Amino acid sequence: MPPDTASWPTARLCAFVADLDFEQIPPRVVDVAKGLMIDWLGSALAGKGARQVEIIEGFARAMGPADGPSTVIPTRRRTSPYFAAMVNAAASHAVEQDDVHNGSVFHPATVIFPPVLAVAEAEAKTGREMLTACIAGYEVGIRVGEFLGRSHYETFHTTGTVGAVAAAAAVGKLIGLDASGLNHALGSAGTQAAGLWEFLRDAADSKQLHTARAAANGLFAACLARDGFRGAARILEGKKGMAAGMSHDADPTRLTDGLGSRWATEETSFKWHASCRHTHPAADALQRLMRSEGLGPEDVATVVTHVHQGAIDVLGAVDIPQTVHQAKFSMGTVLGLIAVHGVADLDAFERHALADAGVARFRSKVRMALDAEVDALYPRRWVGKVSITTVDGRQLEARVDEPKGDPGNTLARQELEAKAVRLAEFGGAATAEEMRACMSRIWSLDQPGSPADLFANAGGGRGPPPSGGREHAVGDQRVHGRGETRLGRG
Amino acid sequence: MPPDTASWPTARLCAFVADLDFEQIPPRVVDVAKGLMIDWLGSALAGKGARQVEIIEGFARAMGPADGPSTVIPTRRRTSPYFAAMVNAAASHAVEQDDVHNGSVFHPATVIFPPVLAVAEAEAKTGREMLTACIAGYEVGIRVGEFLGRSHYETFHTTGTVGAVAAAAAVGKLIGLDASGLNHALGSAGTQAAGLWEFLRDAADSKQLHTARAAANGLFAACLARDGFRGAARILEGKKGMAAGMSHDADPTRLTDGLGSRWATEETSFKWHASCRHTHPAADALQRLMRSEGLGPEDVATVVTHVHQGAIDVLGAVDIPQTVHQAKFSMGTVLGLIAVHGVADLDAFERHALADAGVARFRSKVRMALDAEVDALYPRRWVGKVSITTVDGRQLEARVDEPKGDPGNTLARQELEAKAVRLAEFGGAATAEEMRACMSRIWSLDQPGSPADLFANAGGGRGPPPSGGREHAVGDQRVHGRGETRLGRG
C-alpha cells in the first residue's frame, strides 16, 4: 500500500476503534450507552408480532439452524448469531421508537446492538467488551452518516447503508480485530451497503428489511475479515467508494471529527413519540402551543409546520396513511394524535391513527412548508416551528429548539425505564418484571466481570423457551454453554 | 395504487415474467440457456479451493444448518437453499470464466443459476421449470442492467446490484409468484442492491462477495414476497429508486425493450479467456495480428489497445498485479499471456501471470488509449483494436468486431463442453466423467418430466459426500427426499 495509508480517514477511524479501551471512555458516555441499550431492548421486544418481523423470522427458521447460541429477542428462541442479528434488527425498528442521532440522521441502536449481542452471547464476551463494541459502532456509524451528508439521505435510508458499516465496526471491535482487520471489515460492509427510500410511497416493508440486512451484513463482514477476507481499504472516501456512488456532498473531515474527544454516542436522541423523528419537533411545538393557549382540536383551523427539506422528502410521500407504520410518517396524523389524544405513543397509534374521525379531521388541517432557518440548522439541530390559525381568527406560533429526547432535553431515567417497560409489554414479549430484571442487568454491565447476558433471569434464557418455540438439537451446532462456539471457521 | 400502475415499466416486466410459459420460449433460446448452464456449472466447480470461496463457505458452515436440501457445488455438501445459493454464487465468479451480456455489462449466470438450482432442489421442481426461471432471470437482469446505463457501471458493479433483482425474478418465477408478488420481490431485492468498484484498486475480495450477496438477497426477497412481505412497486424507475440513487443516464424504455420478441438470453457471451471481459477484444485482436504477422513477443516494442472508457475505469486501477485474480484485470498481463504463451486460460494465469519474466516484460509494453469509435459502440458491441510497433519499426494494426464467445462468434458445442470440463477439473471439484454426466443431464433438462437435478449420477448426490464433508442430522431440518422442505414459513 502507498506510504500515506495510515492518514486516510477510513484508516484513522479503524485505528481509533482498534485502540479504543473501555477505561478511556468517560463514565457519562458509558451511562448514556447503557440507557440507549435499555431503550433499544424495549424496541426489540416491541417488534414481537409485527408482520414484517414474523416473515423475516420465518425465513430465518427455514434457512438457519434450529438452535444456537444467540437469542431471537421477540420469541426468545435461539439460533446462529447471523440470524439472531437479522431478526432482532428487524424487530428493533418495527415500532419506530428506537433512537436517532440528529446530525447523521441515523438510527444507531437497531443496527448495532443486535449483532453485538448475538456475537457476545456466542463468544462469551463481558459486559464491558459489549459496551465498548457498541460505543465503537456508534462513534463510527454517526461519523459515516455525517460524512455522507444530506444528499445521501435524499435517496438512501442512511440506517440501512451506514448501518452495515457501523455493525461491522462494532462486531469487529467485539471479536478483537486490529486496525487492518477492521479496515477489511469496513470494506466488505461498505460494498454491501444498501437501502432506498422508494418503499415509503407504497407503505412497503423495506425499512425493517434494511435494518435486518445492515446488522447481518455488518456481522458477516466482520467475521469474513477475521478469516482473512479482504475488503477495499477506502470504501468510504475512495474514488469508487460509498461517497462516490451515493452522495454528492460528502465531507471526509467528518469521518475523523473529534475522535477520542468528541463522543458522538452521547449526542444520540431518544424518541419519545412513536413516529418518524422528522415529525417530533413540530409535534412538541404544537403540544406546547395548544397547552399554553388552552386549545382543543376543534379550536384549530389550520396548522403550518415549518420544516427542513428532509422532512418534506420523507413525509411528503404519505397523504392518507393506509397502515399504522405509514401513519408514523404522516405529519398530519402525528399532530392529530397530539391534538386529539395528547400523546402519539404506541397505543395511540394502534388505536387512533387510522380510523379516528377527530384525528383524520385534524390531519386535513396540517400542511408542511419549507423553512429556511430550520433547513439551515438541520441536521445539526432539529427545530420545531408551527403556526396555528384558530377558528376565531388568531395567529399563534410556537418554537421548540430541542425536541423531547434530544441530549439537551433528554429523558429522565424514570421516563426512559417507563418507556422501555411499555415497549416490552406492548406485544407481550416480556412482562414488566422481566424487563426490570433486564434493565437491572444492563445498568450493571460495566461492573468488572459482568457477563454480556441480558436475559439470564428474565425468562427464556438457557431453559426451555417461554412460549411456542420449537427447539431441536442440531448435530454439531448444539451449544452446551457459553464460549463453545466460535464464529467463522476454526 | 394509482390507475396507471400496470403501465409502469417495473409492473410490465413483472407481468412478462408471471406470464412466461416454457412453450413460448423459442427452442434456440432454450438451447442457449442449457449451454449457459453448462458453462456456469464449470465455473461453479472451478471455484473450489479459492480462498474467498472457502471463507464464505466457512461462514455458511458456522451460521447455517449443517444439512439441508441444497447442494454446495464445490464441496457437494448440503445445506439450506439460502447458503447454497450464497456459496455457489461466490464460487461461480471466482475464476472469471462465467458468462457476460455485453449491452448490460452484467454477468448473469453467477447470480441466477445458484439461487434457482438451490430452490429447485429444495422444492422438487422440474427441469423445464428451472430453465424457464433462469431465462426469466436473464431477461429481467439484462434489461435492468441496460436501463441503469453506463453511469451506473462507473461506480457500481452491475452484477452485484442488478444481480439481486435478477435472482429475485428468477426465484420468484420458480416458486410461482404472480405479477404482484414478483413486483414485491423486485422491490425487496432492489432495495438491497449493492456493490462498489472500490475494491479493485486493492485486489480485495469483494467481487465474489457481491455475487454471493446478490444471489442470496434475491432468493431472500422472493421468499419474503411469497409470505406477504411488501416491496416498493417502482424500485427501478421510481423517484427514490435504484436509478435515482445509482445512475444519471437511466433509460426506462430499456426495461421493457422487446419483451416477448427479443430474447436477451441468447445475446449472452461465453468468456473464452480467463480474465475480465474488458480485456478480451484487445486480446483477440492481438492474437490475430501476431499470428498473421508471425510475430513473437520479443518482436513487439509497444502495444496500444484502443478501448472504451469502461475498460479504463475497470482495468486502470491495476498497475502490476499482486494476485492471480488481480492479474485478470490487468490488460498488460492478459496480452502478455497471449503473446508469450498463446493462451490466457486458467492454467496460464495460475502458472504465468505473476512470476513469468516474459509476461512481465510484455506487460510493460502495453498501454490503453480511449478510442472514440470503440467507446461509441460500447456496450452494444465490444470492439477490439490494437496497434503494434515492432522492434524493427513497423506499425501494425488489427481489429476484432466480435470477440470469441460473442453470439456472432460463439463457441462450438465441443469448445463449450471442453471448457466446462477443464473448469470442473481445475480445482479437483469433479472428474471429467462426472462433468460429462452433469452435461448430459443439462442437455436433457427440457425433456418432459426431467427433474431439476444436476448431480444425481455425478458423485456426491444423495449419498455420502465425495471428500471431506462433515454431514450431520439436523433435527427437523433433515431432508429425506426431495420436496419435503418448503422455503419460507408454512
Q: Can you walk through the features of this model?
A:
With 490 residues, chain A is α+β, with helices and mostly antiparallel strands. The first copy, chain A, folds into two domains: 5-269, 2-methylcitrate dehydratase PrpD; 277-404, 60s Ribosomal Protein L30, Chain: A (2-Layer Sandwich), CATH 3.30.1330.120. Chain A is 48% helix and 7% strand. Chain A is built from 19 helices and eight strands. Chain A has a four-stranded mixed β-sheet. In chain A, strands 1-2 form a two-stranded antiparallel ribbon. In chain A, α5 (109-122) packs parallel to α7. Chain A starts with 8 loop residues before the first helix and ends in a 47-residue tail after the last helix. The interface between A and B is large, with 80 and 80 residues.
CATH architecture of the largest domain in chain A: Orthogonal Bundle
* Assembly status: homodimer
Output mean pLDDT of chain A: 91
Largest sheet entry of chain A: 4 strands, mixed
CATH fold assignment of the largest domain in chain A: 2-methylcitrate dehydratase PrpD
User: Number of domains in the coordinates of chain A?
Assistant: 2
Q: Give the number of DSSP strands of chain A.
A: 8
CATH superfamily of the largest domain in chain A: 2-methylcitrate dehydratase PrpD
* Alpha carbon gap, first and last residue of chain A: 29 Å
Share of β-strand residues of chain A: 5-15%
Order of strands, main sheet of chain A, comes to 6-5-7-8
Shape of chain A: globular
The CATH class of the largest domain in chain A turns out to be Mainly Alpha
| Greatest chain-chain contact | A-B, 80 and 80 residues
